[in-house]
Amino acid sequence: MWLIALIVASGVMGLTIVAPALPLIQQGLGSTSDAVQKLLTVYLFALAAGQLVYGTVSDRIGRRPVLLFGALLYAVGGAAAMFANNIELLTFCRIIQGLGAAACVSMGRAIVGDSFDRSDGARNMSTVATILAILPICSLAFGGLLAELVGWQSTMALISISGFLAFFVTWLKIQESNLEPIDSINLVAVFQAYRTVLKNPIFFCFMMTCGMQVGMFFAMNGFLPFQYQRLGYSSAEFGLWFATTPVSYLLGNALNRSYFVARGIERAAMLGCLLSLLSVIAYFVTQAMGMTHALSLAIPGSLFGFSNGIVVANTTMGAITAAGRYAGTGNGISGAWQMAAGGIAGVLITALGGAENFQIAAGGMIVMSLIAVMAMYYVYADSLKKTELTSKPSH
């Protein structure tokens, strides 16, 4: 299971290890902050699109071939990026990386779903979630340091190495888990399943909440490096300070498992959304007040990470449960939306000048957080109504 978790996490590493190196890439290629921020955006869009396609294809040909293809694509994209001498070529390589990473992420989760029953699968998904939180901590901390010591190309080299490792681990250790592949792909049935799931308001609100929360984290990777740079901090220092966000995510996730989830996932997620809103408001206020110490960004980031540790797990499970017999389809849509939300947020914030003006970026996050709060409130209010109905004595 740890091998599967590491394969899944390698796809996320392709995002977080590059974030601290963005200012160095800008300098090295003589580009703009807007252009280098797109290195994260296109990766997220490719990661989202790939997940929607690979799941259906793997139902027909199996998980293992898709995972092997994706891992190799990820590795080749990383290797090619090392030799990119302009921002356009590097952007193309990032699209290739994202398409490869999508197979690693989606097939890893699918293999867990194929291999275990619901209770064991949930426990093993927790292992995957833990690795997904730990690896960004390491890649943020060491990505910036490596970029400063060796050059930004070193981050692409690590992406390539992780891709080749995932390929050989899959080739040698991972067995096919889809033992009953479908005879053919019925696109009409696929789109009908998508339509049915998206028409479910509870699923939609759970999905929207989770997408906004995860999307904010991914968007942060695009503009926070430049704010730290404006405050006088290096890429390595940014990586260390920003790593407090995934560390806090681990704490929130642990407290959620031991305390919050027993009180209802809707209530827990609602609380997490409110804490998240408080954190992004704190981002706006501290920088509007002219605070320059790294703690003025790290403390709101830690609160954001903690709140996400509560929200993401509960809304993910809520979306899957709300999808009913279309749980697999719901999981794919929700996962793709999380990546797409980060990409869309990155594009909009950059277009509005968020890479140069942090107040614009923070304002964009406040809007996203408010959307999450409103969507989650709909679900929370619905759960309260259902509780009242079931608690009324029958006559």
Structure write-up:
The structure is a single chain. This protein has two domains: about 1-175, Up-down Bundle (Growth Hormone, Chain: A); about 185-395, MFS general substrate transporter like domains (Growth Hormone, Chain: A, Up-down Bundle), CATH 1.20.1250. Helix 9 runs antiparallel to helix 10 (about 235-240) and helix 13 packs antiparallel against helix 14 (about 325-350). The longest helix has about 35 residues, at about 360-390. The protein has helices at about 1-15, 20-30, 35-60, 65-80, 85-115, 120-150, 155-175, 185-200, 200-230, 235-240, 245-260, 265-290, 295-320, 325-350, 360-390. It is about 85% helix and about 0% strand. It is mostly helical and about 400 residues long. The mean pLDDT is about 85.
By secondary-structure content and strand pairing, the structural class works out as mainly alpha
In one word, what is the shape?
A: globular
**How far apart, in Å, are the first and last alpha carbons?**
51 Å
Q: Enter the CATH topology name of the largest domain.
A: Growth Hormone, Chain: A
Q: Can you name the CATH architecture of the largest domain? A: Up-down Bundle
**C-alpha-based Rg, rounded:** 20 Å
CATH superfamily heading of the largest domain: MFS general substrate transporter like domains
Number of helices: 15
> In percent terms, what proportion of residues is strand?
under 5%
Q: What's the pLDDT, averaged over the residues? A: 85
